[in-house]
Amino acid sequence: MHTLAIVAFLLAGTAAAQAAEINAFISTAIKAATDELLPPFERANGYTIRASYAPSGALIPRFDRGEPVDVFLTDSAAIDELIKQGKVMAGRTDLARTGIGIAVRKGAPKPDVSSAEALKRALLEARTVGHAAPSGGSITRRISRGCSSGSASPPR
Predict the structure, then answer these.
(1) How far is CA 9 from CA 6, 57, 62, in A?
(2) Average pLDDT value for residue range 53-71
């Protein structure tokens, strides 16, 4: 399981904060939830949330370029890295946990993924493997390292 985290920080002296607008970078992994939660929050508190949705891997470069943001909702690994780099205030609040799914093409045999060893075998035996890595691929890198067999495997 991968933890989704929030880090909230106010940028001192920003016009957005003074105008009751909150600029938010939000990972697409939680878009459905925030689409339901933000409007009632805005009505109850008088704030306008300017939400910008994208995968974490796309939000971080925008943050690094200096785009204005008051709240950043993304995965814990990305937040931890921003904290480590001193780019956001230390501390975070974990909001949710997300899982990773596996899909196979219609009509293809269902792979055995009942154990770590079975998953490793299924990945190594697959003709092709596609994956999404929204926060830089930390999970897929760990899986790849776990599948390393010591011998060179063909590129996929």
Answers:
(1) 10, 20, 16
(2) 91
